[in-house]
Amino acid sequence: MSNTTSSTIHEIAELVNDTLIQMRKRIEAHGAFPSVSQAKVSTLLQSDYTFELPIPLQTVVTDVQEMMDSGIVHPTHPRYCGLFEPNVSQAAIIGDLFTALYNPQLSVQSHAPAAHAIEQHTLKWLISQLGLEPEKYAAHFTSGGMEANLTAVLAALNHRFPHWRDTGAIGCAEQPVFYASMNAHHSFEKAAAIAGIGHKSLHKITTNEKFEIDIDALREQIKIDRAQGQVPFMIIATFGATGSGSIDPIKSLLTLCEEQSLWLHVDAAWGGTAAFAPEIKPFMIGIEKVDSITWDAHKWLPIPMGAGMFFCAHAEALEAAFNVLTPYIPISKETYSNPLSTTVQWSRRFIGLKVFMCLAALGSTGIKDLVSHQISIGRYLRQKLVALGWQVINATPLPIVCFTKNGLNISSLLTQLEQKKIGWISRLFLSDGREVLRGCITNYKTEKKDIDQIIEFLGEYENELLSM
Ligand SMILES: *Cc1c(COP(=O)(O)O)cnc(C)c1O
User: Fold this and answer.
1) Residue of 227, 223, 288, 225 lying closest to 256 (CA atoms)
2) d(CA 349, CA 406)
3) Cα angle vertex 64, ends 58, 66, to 5°?
4) pLDDT, tens only, 198-230
5) Residue 463: is its pLDDT beyond 90?
6) In DSSP terms, which residues pair with 180 in a beta bridge?
7) For residue 335, is pLDDT > 70?
8) For ligand 1, atom 4, which residue shows the shortest CA distance?
9) Ligand 1 centroid from CA 293, angstroms
10) How far apart are CA 178 and CA 7, in angstroms?
């Protein structure tokens, strides 16, 4: 029995190894779009996977590999220039594998001291890269930016309303309100709903021509809200908006928050990684004084989902928001600093290991090279498009390019992009109703030749239209 098992594991390891080595080539040949429908895969599963009799693991591995090859959008494809899903490094993959292999429980520190040391060491280094003093911040990994942003809203509510923990929104005589630009991520609507203050508590502020929050409009809105008896408690600054890559002015928002006694949260889910780009660092000035920060390691660094991060200058607000006592954990000083008492999650996966291993294997020079490579490829895409007469409508230094041309049929263009297996780019609906194309350099393997191929496709598409 043990022999069969070990030989099986050996064979499986070889299969997985093979997948690691061969997969990138297969994906490039297959194209970035899925080629099967969910219905087709479901039918196959209904016949082959009834879970009645065990299936040899090797067969399962091969089947899963086939389903994945043909049945997902591939962020690891070199011409996947889409949403914030990165290509992943081997070190990070091995990190995730080891997390599954050892399966440590990180809800309390005493259960996994080594894992906690690795996570805190990693978080402290990353926060120091933002220019912050690590000792001043409580830091933890989250499932992603959604959880981190929710944590920010709950911490800010507990900070502003000392009764929040016991009575929640019902204990407020007036409506708590918070602010973000029209360009901010929609996780804040969800956070508002989960926090019990409702979507209407989030006041969306107009933006300027660079898609940055309009400070005067924000100041005016706060004045109106206060006059109506509402209670502002927080402002969100987006550093690298999901659609346009815009960067809200942290310094001006900081001044406003200090003046108005408001919590300033920076949502740098994707853009945080620009801390490794010297030319972008100046946009971060002021971040060392904000109350909390969201930064996803899984958006730009080559790390698989989910690896969000939350940094907070008010440890006591986190404890107020999340601490509960349980009969099976003895009360000590540690009880209150356990992730169980300071975060949304209960059972806690060792999220930080893949981040730690990825950073260790790349080193700071490797990370800087990777980030500046992607920024330069983004710049290359922007320059090519401008040179060819496309309207580039955003102006961020980050590697996102939003572009269009008069009379362009975006749906038909994207269908051709799929059919010709060129790559994957996204579309974006602007607040004025316009629709544009959006290319983002999320893959550290994307090269100039990949951009050339996309540009060539765009040219051919236009020519075909003209000749019709
Ligand atoms: C992606 C994103 C989020 C949400 O993060 P998840 O990791 O997807 O949960 C929040 N804010 C911004 C700016 C994002 O780009």
Assistant:
1) 223
2) 49
3) 105
4) 999 999 999 999 999 999 999 999 999 999 999
5) no
6) 204
7) no
8) 145
9) 12
10) 59
Question: What's the CA-to-centroid distance between 61 and ligand 1, angstroms?
Answer: 31
Question: Token digits for 192?
Answer: 């508002």
Alpha-carbon gap, residue 137 to 123, rounded angstroms: 10
CA distances from 209 to 23, 111, 183, 368, 385 (A): 42, 51, 12, 30, 20
Interval 187-197: pLDDT, tens: 999 999 999 99
The label of the residue with tokens 């263009």 reads 413
Backbone angles phi, psi at 271, to 5 degrees: -65, -20
**Beta strand pairing status for 424-429 and 80-81?**
parallel
Order of strands, sheet of 292-296, starting from the edge strand that comes earlier in the sequence:
138-142, 308-312, 292-296, 263-267, 231-238, 176-181, 202-205
Please write the tens of the pLDDT for every residue from 233-263: 999 999 999 999 999 999 999 999 999 999 9
Q: Bridge-partner residues for 232, per DSSP?
A: 177
Establish whether residue 242 lines the binding site of ligand 1, counting it when its CB lies within 6 angstroms of any ligand atom: yes
How far, in Å, is the centroid of ligand 1 from the Cα of 3? Answer: 46
Residues 102 and 60: their CA atoms lie apart, in Å, by 22
Distance CA 134, CA 115 (A): 18
Cβ 308 vs Cβ 187: under 8 Å: no
Q: For ligand 1, say whether the CB of 248 is within 6 Å of any of its atoms.
A: no
- Per the prediction, the chain carries an average pLDDT of 93
Q: What is the pLDDT of residue 182?
A: 95
CA distance 439 to 450: 12
Q: Kindly give the number of the ligand 1 atom that is closest to the alpha carbon of 270.
A: 15
CB neighbours of residue 1 within 10 Å: 5
145 lines ligand 1 (CB under 6 A): yes
How far does the centroid of ligand 1 lie from the alpha carbon of residue 299, in Å?
8
